[in-house]
Write a structure and sequence with these properties.
With 111 residues, this protein is an alpha+beta fold. The chain contains 2 helices and 5 strands. It has a 5-stranded antiparallel beta sheet. It holds the Pfam family DUF1292.
Length: 111
Amino acid sequence: MADFEKDDLDEMEDDVVVVITDEDGNESYYREEMIIPVGEKKFAILVPIDTDDCDCSDDHDRNCECCGDDGDALIARIDTDENGEEIYIDPTDEEYDAVLRAYEELLDEEE
């Protein structure tokens, strides 16, 4: 946990924080924004958490533009590994399209 301190995680104790490590070992932090069930599978909408310092004058509410919700969200399928722990993996193209349709339907229902 290099750039992202434990105190930052403590502030988000009610949020599910997912750490994704790329092939070069770089870690990126995401907040689980929403779970969307499609068929018998669950998918998560993951919103990036900006762990870099910024110059904003806000009280670093993670929803301010510089500290939170800008950047690309991800869709991840939630599976269970052999130890019974949830793991986040890339969905197939078909699953991705199905989740997008389900997400759009949810947004339409909210309007």
